[in-house]
């Protein structure tokens, strides 16, 4: 118990001036104190203290000078620093970007100090008016509209009106019709979905032989006997189509070597060669290349949306948004021992589309394996 | 130290010339001193506006060198690791801009950073407008324009991102095609028309290029102009405060203060973009290599604004229906269609319709020029937070591979958790936000009726300790007292128990129920707590407060 109880009755000094979530009362962000009140002729316009303004003017001038120097430095760096190698480009980027940033910042800071410390503080009031126009105006406008419509005869002459609408209808279709040739393949639209069913693996070489499997990147054919370490994996493209992106978008394969006992019933053994299995690399979800393979679990993972397929069991889906297994390509070897395609996939590869139907069931009913 | 007393000749001459021909004087007389209210949150939209200007400037620079062609060439530029590699002209010219044009890399990186700032600026601006109810009459049309702008900005981002034709940008195009082709009935046709045949073809980059540099920016420019004109004509909204009401606007004049501030803000935005382009590398296309549909790099991520679509594609469980069995038609890949269309549909349609739904529920047809503090319309704020959470979970799960790698958690489990969170998260966010809003309203009521805690403890003669409260500062109290109850439909039944017209059918009854929940005053500001009791210390809960969510 102290005896200065009475003094506490004057808490004004200690009252927080601000409640969280409410605007700061009157203080400027850059100014250190409330500006000296020096009302001008206009109410709501509070001029700054001239002495402070003079000090601020020097700060502004300094900022603008920085911009001047930085802009000149930019021009010099542009001339002096050449680009070409990643290192030189990086240096040039740093020099040009740094000086540009500095020049812009100098100008920006200068203007802010100018506005906040030299220009007056404003709290001007302007009236608002309701957006709607008054009744009289609305009436005049609607009268004018009716009058004009009558004068034009649009309502009175139905023949005119109807033929105008009739004329406009096909004309409106013209821009749509013009878009038909957006498809450059020049095939009838009914063939679109048919082309999605096939890949180039169904084609033959000029000599009439089946296409060989080629290692993506190196362009080498694959001798089955050389691809012999279980757990091995290759990204494979069709012979002769190494640079045909349209072909690759459907025909790229992922080739995996298994120990014979690892292959489960989902995989068609007749389509494998000595434990080597080929699946379409194009994910059945939205078509990203399912490029990641985990050797110990035999999981193929698509990095886009993480659809996961069991490579040992017909590449059936075990996780993620893909609804169908990666189609398996029937492969064998030619007389020289190189891997070849026995033919095309028996179901469409890649993302689903309306006309796809249940291609797997159809393939099964034809007696094949899917 | 001379000061200006008359318009200098150099300005007066051209001005009279223009006024003689355009009558510009009348316009300037009305508008030079147009008042702009001040609040930090009113500047968020300007970030987007200035980013758009930067995009136009840097984008034009890029077009001088970029070649939108998918013709295959052998790279022979100065980036050694790719020398001799086959690639499209688009990729080769993007590399040329990066390595062989002085300032080219800077401009390319500024363009990309400005694009991110553009979309981010639009998003935070939109959230500000939403949470303060600034979209209410008469500004609903400008709100709808804003939603269109955001949608177009996403399309602009998608088309731009695909142009360099590097491996990463190709992954985006591949996913786009996979989504388009999955659409029922028209998917195959749309895909063939867009890509000029089979994917990828050689047309998509020139086509995206015309969309990206001509059509979409043209529409954006027109809509942004309309957005600004409407803002100008309707005058900006203002925060509640001293001397501010629905019939006035308080602030600084356009000339000279607001003009200068806006100019400085443009320069700050420009400097921020230039600074990021200087010190933070973005999209190093030379590391990815040319696009081929046979390859992909792990950890591929889209730009942030596409992340929510990526996340929803990742979250969706496998689901495909064949409507007609084995026939050659009827495949519905729902695990693509639903995640690609539904979340974006919910968010964009919800945004566009919200002002009209709210008006229907509250029956409020008045003009509003003073914005609401988010806490004062708790249901709107909660709906907004639920939507943010929904979007946020999808966005986060768009990077679940990165999350799983960084935190060493199972990738599959991030997906399982996401599948639950995408539903539970928004519900939780709704409840928590609602309670927070009421809590904040209660604290406002406490400030108004009891005053502000002074930090001074006083001991009463009988031994009790109390804290002394003092009245809040004038402008703070005015800010708090700007609160208005959320309007409600007049749903009271008449004397014979018949509800008013339009409230009788099932839809009308739903409307009445929604209005009752949405509207009304939850925590009255000063109910039965006059200012005399400023020293009182007791809890501030009042009788009439809403407990509907805790009951």
From TrEMBL, chain A:
The compartments listed are: Cell membrane
Q: Which GO terms describe its cellular component?
A: plasma membrane
Q: Name one GO molecular function term.
A: 2 iron, 2 sulfur cluster binding
Question: Where is the sequence biased in composition, kind Basic and acidic residues?
Answer: 1-16
* Transmembrane region(s): 59-81, 93-115, 159-179
> Which parts of the sequence belong to the Rieske domain?
271-340
InterPro entries according to UniProt: QcrA_N (IPR045603), Rieske_2Fe-2S (IPR017941), Rieske_2Fe-2S_sf (IPR036922), Rieske_Fe-S_prot (IPR014349), Rieske_Fe-S_prot_C (IPR005805)
- What Gene3D superfamilies does the record point to? Rieske [2Fe-2S] iron-sulphur domain
State the annotated membrane topology for this chain. Answer: Multi-pass membrane protein
Print the keywords alphabetically: 2Fe-2S, Cell membrane, Disulfide bond, Electron transport, Iron, Iron-sulfur, Membrane, Metal-binding, Oxidoreductase, Respiratory chain, Transmembrane, Transmembrane helix, Transport
Disordered: annotated segments? 1-25
Q: What is the similarity comment for this entry? A: Belongs to the Rieske iron-sulfur protein family.
This chain belongs to the protein called Cytochrome bc1 complex Rieske iron-sulfur subunit
Q: Which organism is it from?
A: Nonomuraea cavernae
Give me the gene this protein comes from.
qcrA
UniProtKB/TrEMBL annotation, chain B:
Q: Which InterPro entries match?
A: Cyt_b/b6_N (IPR005797), Cytb/b6-like_sf (IPR027387), Di-haem_cyt_TM (IPR016174)
- Matching PANTHER family: CYTOCHROME B (PTHR19271)
Keywords, comma-separated and alphabetical: Cell membrane, Electron transport, Heme, Iron, Membrane, Metal-binding, Respiratory chain, Translocase, Transmembrane, Transmembrane helix, Transport
Q: Which reaction does it catalyse?
A: a quinol + 2 Fe(III)-[cytochrome c](out) = a quinone + 2 Fe(II)-[cytochrome c](out) + 2 H(+)(out)
Q: What is its EC number?
A: 7.1.1.8
Its GO CC terms are: plasma membrane
Q: Where is the composition biased (Basic and acidic residues)?
A: 523-551
Entry GO MF terms: metal ion binding; oxidoreductase activity; quinol-cytochrome-c reductase activity
Q: Which domain of life is it from?
A: Bacteria
Top-level EC class as recorded in UniProt: translocase
Q: What is this protein called?
A: Cytochrome bc1 complex cytochrome b subunit
State the species of origin: Nonomuraea cavernae
Q: Which coenzymes or cofactors are required?
A: heme
Any one GO biological process: respiratory electron transport chain
Q: Which Pfam families match?
A: Cytochrom_B_N_2 (PF13631)
Q: Where in the cell is it found?
A: Cell membrane
Keyword Nucleus on this protein? no
Q: Topology versus the membrane, per the UniProt entry?
A: Multi-pass membrane protein
Where exactly are the transmembrane stretches of this chain? 47-66, 112-131, 143-163, 175-196, 208-233, 254-280, 336-357, 378-396, 416-434
Taking every annotated instance into account, which residue ranges of this chain make up the domain Cytochrome b/b6 N-terminal region profile? 14-240
Region Disordered, annotated ranges: 487-506, 519-551
Q: What is its main location?
A: membrane
């Amino acid at each position: 118990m102290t005896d200065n109880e009475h003094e506490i009755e004057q808490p004004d000094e200690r009252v927080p001036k601000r409640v969280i979530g409410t605007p700061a009362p009157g203080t400027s962000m850059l100014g250190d104190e409330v500006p000296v009140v020096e009302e001008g002729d206009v109410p709501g316009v509070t001029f700054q203290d001239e002495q402070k303004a003079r000090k601020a003017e020097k700060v502004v001038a300094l900022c603008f000078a920085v911009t001047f120097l930085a802009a000149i430095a930019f021009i010099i760096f542009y001339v002096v620093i050449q680009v070409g190698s990643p290192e030189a480009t990086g240096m040039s980027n740093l020099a040009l970007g740094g000086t540009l940033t500095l020049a812009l910042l100098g100008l920006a800071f200068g203007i802010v100090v100018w506005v906040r410390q030299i220009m007056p503080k404003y709290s001007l009031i302007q009236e608002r008016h309701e957006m709607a126009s008054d009744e009289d105006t609305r009436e005049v406008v609607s009268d004018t509209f009716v009058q004009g419509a009558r004068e034009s005869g649009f309502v009175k002459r139905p023949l005119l009106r109807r033929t105008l609408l009739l004329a406009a209808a096909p004309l409106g279709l013209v821009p749509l019709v013009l878009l038909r040739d957006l498809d450059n393949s020049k095939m009838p639209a009914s063939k679109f979905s048919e082309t999605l069913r096939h890949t180039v693996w169904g084609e033959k070489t000029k000599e009439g032989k089946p296409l060989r499997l080629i290692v993506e990147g190196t362009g080498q054919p694959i001798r089955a006997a050389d691809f012999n370490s279980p757990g091995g994996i290759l990204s494979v493209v069709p012979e002769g189509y190494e640079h045909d992106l349209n072909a690759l978008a459907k025909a790229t394969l992922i080739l995996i070597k298994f120990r014979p006992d690892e292959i489960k019933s989902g995989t068609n053994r007749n389509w494998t060669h000595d434990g080597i299995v080929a699946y379409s690399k194009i994910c059945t979800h939205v078509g990203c290349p399912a490029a990641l393979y985990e050797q110990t679990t035999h999981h193929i993972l698509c990095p886009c949306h993480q659809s996961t397929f069991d490579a040992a069991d017909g590449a059936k889906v075990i996780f993620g948004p893909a609804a169908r297994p990666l189609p398996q390509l029937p492969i064998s070897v030619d007389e020289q021992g190189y891997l070849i395609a026995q033919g095309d996939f028996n179901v469409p590869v890649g993302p689903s589309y309306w006309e796809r139907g249940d291609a797997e069931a159809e393939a099964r009913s034809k007696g094949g394996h899917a | 130290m001379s000061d200006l007393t008359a318009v200098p000749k150099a300005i007066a001459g051209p001005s009279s010339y223009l006024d003689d021909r355009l009558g510009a004087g009348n316009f300037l007389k009305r508008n030079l001193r147009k008042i702009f209210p001040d609040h930090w949150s009113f500047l968020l939209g300007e970030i987007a506006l200035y980013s758009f200007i930067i995009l136009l400037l840097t984008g034009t620079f890029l077009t001088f060198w970029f070649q939108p062609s998918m013709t295959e060439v052998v790279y022979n530029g100065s980036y050694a690791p790719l020398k001799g590699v086959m690639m499209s002209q688009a990729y080769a010219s993007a590399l040329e801009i990066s390595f062989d044009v002085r300032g080219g890399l800077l401009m390319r990186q500024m363009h990309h950073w400005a694009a991110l700032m553009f979309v981010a600026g639009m998003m935070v601006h939109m959230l500000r407008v939403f949470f303060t109810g600034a979209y209410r009459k008469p500004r609903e049309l400008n709100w709808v324009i804003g939603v269109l702008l955001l949608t177009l900005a996403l399309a602009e981002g998608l088309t731009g991102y695909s142009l360099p034709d590097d491996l990463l940008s190709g992954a985006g195009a591949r996913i786009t095609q996979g989504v388009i082709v999955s659409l029922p009935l028209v998917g195959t046709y749309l895909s063939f028309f867009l890509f000029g045949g089979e994917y990828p073809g050689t047309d998509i980059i020139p086509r995206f290029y015309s969309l990206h540099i001509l059509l979409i920016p043209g529409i954006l420019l027109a809509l942004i102009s309309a957005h600004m004109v409407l803002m100008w004509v309707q005058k900006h909204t203002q925060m509640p405060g001293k001397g501010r009401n629905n019939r006035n606007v308080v602030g600084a004049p356009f000339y000279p203060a607001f003009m200068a501030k806006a100019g400085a803000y443009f320069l700050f935005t420009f400097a921020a973009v230039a600074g990021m382009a200087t010190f933070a590398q973005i999209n190093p296309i030379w590391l990815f290599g040319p696009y081929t549909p046979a390859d992909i790099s792990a950890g591929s991520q889209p730009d942030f604004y596409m992340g929510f679509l990526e996340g929803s594609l990742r979250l969706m469980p496998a689901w495909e229906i064949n409507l007609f069995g084995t026939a050659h038609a009827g495949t519905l890949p729902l695990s693509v269609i639903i995640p690609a269309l539904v979340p974006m549909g919910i968010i964009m349609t919800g945004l566009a319709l919200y002002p009209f739904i709210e008006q229907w529920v509250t029956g409020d047809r008045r003009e509003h020029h003073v914005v609401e503090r988010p806490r004062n319309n708790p249901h709107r704020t909660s709906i907004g937070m639920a939507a943010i959470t929904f979007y946020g979970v999808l966005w986060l799960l768009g990077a679940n591979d990165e999350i799983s790698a960084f935190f060493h958690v199972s990738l599959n489990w991030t997906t399982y958790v996401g599948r639950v969170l995408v539903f539970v998260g928004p519900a939780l966010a709704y409840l928590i936000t609602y309670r927070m809003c009421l809590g904040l309203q209660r604290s406002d009521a406490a400030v108004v009726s009891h005053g502000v805690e002074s930090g001074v403890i006083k001991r009463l003669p009988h031994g009790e300790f109390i804290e002394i409260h003092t009245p809040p500062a004038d402008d703070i109290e005015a800010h708090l007292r700007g609160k208005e109850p959320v309007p409600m439909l007049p749903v009271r039944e008449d004397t014979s128990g018949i509800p008013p017209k339009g409230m009788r059918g099932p839809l009308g009854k739903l409307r009445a129920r929604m209005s009752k929940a949405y509207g009304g005053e939850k925590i009255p500001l000063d109910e039965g707590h006059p200012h005399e009791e400023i020293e009182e210390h007791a809890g501030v809960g009042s009788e009439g407060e809403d407990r509907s969510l805790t009951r």
